[in-house]
Amino acid sequence: MGERGGRRVTMEDVAAEAGVSRALVSLVIRDAPHVKEDKRAAVLAAIDRLGYRRNSLASRLASRRTATLGLLVLDLRNPVWADVTEGVTEVAESSGNHVLIAVGGFDEAREREALASLLEMQVDGVVLAGYMGRASVLRGQLAGTPAVVLTRRLDVPGVDSVVGGDEQGAELAVDHLVALGHRRIAHVSGPAGIPYPARREGYLAAMARHGLTPRLFEGDLTETGGRAAMHAFLDDDGDVPTAVFCYNDLSALGVLDELDHRGVRVPEDVAVVGYDDSSVAAMPRIGLTSVDQHARAIGERGARLLLSRIASAGGEERHESLVPELIVRGSTVALGR
Predict the structure, then answer these.
(1) How distant, in Å, are the alpha carbons of 81, 188, 263, 282, 289 from that of 249?
(2) Do residues 163 and 148 lie in contact, with contact meaning Cβ atoms separated by under 8 Å?
(3) Directed axis angle between helix 135-142 and helix 108-120, to 10°?
(4) How high is the pLDDT of residue 276?
(5) Which of 69, 155, 199, 233 has the most C-beta neighbours closer than 10 Å?
(6) Confidence of residue 64 (pLDDT cuts 50, 70, 90)
(7) End-to-end Cα spacing for the chain
(8) pLDDT at 194 over 60
C-alpha cells in the first residue's frame, strides 16, 4: 500500500481523491458490476496516483476469514508426513488458501503449544496430521474451530477424519509373507504409548488367523528402533525370524542396515516389509516392499473435507477411509528361493 504524508494510503484517501464514497471505492476494488464507467475510471485513476494497494489481510479479517489453514503435523523428518503435507497444501493453495505449518512432535505439551500457536494466527480451520493427544484436550483447544484429523479417528463434534486402513494394511503384509512360505514373522511395532495400535493389532490378527506365533519388538518409529529390534532378533539363536514386518519405512531402514552390518542377506535370509511406501522405499538400492496407505491422497481428502466444513459450518461429522495397497519390491521373495 502506498504512503501519503508518511502514512499508508487508505480507501478513504482514494475516495477523497476521486470525489466518491468509500463504498464506491470498495465496489471498484472488488470489480463489482453496475458501477458507472466514469466513476470506475475516476477511482482507478486515483488509485494509480496515490499508489494504493488493497490490504487483503485486513479485508479478510473484516469478513472473519483469513483464507489460511493451519496444518499440525507429527514429524517432518519422516517422508510420509511430507507426502501428507503436499496433499494438503496442493488442495488448499488451488482453492486460494495459504497453509501455516507447525510440528507437534510426540510430546503432548509441545503438541498443545503448537496447535495453540496456529489458532492464535486466526486460521479458518486446522488439519491435524498424526495427532497424538486426547479427544477431550482437542475439543477444548479448538473451541468450535473447524478441523479434520488425518490417520486417526476422534469422536469430537465438528471434527472430520481421514484414515488409511492400518489394520487391513498390516494383514496384507503378513498374508504376503505367509504366501511366500514364511512362518517365523516378527514385527517391529510402534511405541506402546502412542494412540495408533491398528498396525500391531492387524499383525496379531493375521498371525492368529494363520496359526502362527507372534513375536514383537517395540520400536520408536525411527531407524534406531529398527536397528535395535533386528539386533535383538538376530541374537536370539532359538528363534531368528525369516521375515520382519515393520511399523513404518524408517524402522525398516534400520532393520536393513543391521542386517547388512551382520552380513545377513535380504531377501534370501530375511525378508523385510515396511509401511507407508515412502519415496525412500522406492529407491533402486533399497527396493523395499511396503504398504501404501496413500498418504498424499489422505492429505488431499482431508483438506477438501476441511474446506467444505469451513464453507458450511455444522452438519454431521464425516469419516473417510482409504484402502491400503501392498507394493511388492525386491526385499521379499519366496522362502528358500
Answers:
(1) 12, 11, 21, 10, 9
(2) no
(3) 20
(4) 97
(5) 69
(6) low
(7) 71
(8) yes
Per-residue pLDDT, 4: 57
Q: Tell me the three cell numbers of residue 191.
A: 511405541
| AA identity, residue 263 | G
Residue of 313 and 290 predicted with greater confidence: 290
Contact criterion met (CB below 8 Å) for 190 and 250: no
What are the start-end ranges of the H helices in 30-165? 37-50, 56-62, 79-94, 108-120, 135-142
Q: Measured on CA atoms in the order 233, 172, 331, 208, is the torsion positive or negative?
A: positive
What is the per-residue pLDDT for 193? 86
**Separation CA 53–CA 125 (nearest Å):** 27
Quickly count: other Cβ atoms within 10 Å of residue 44's Cβ. 14
In this prediction, residues 66-83 reach a mean pLDDT of 94
Pairing of strands 7-8, 3-4: antiparallel
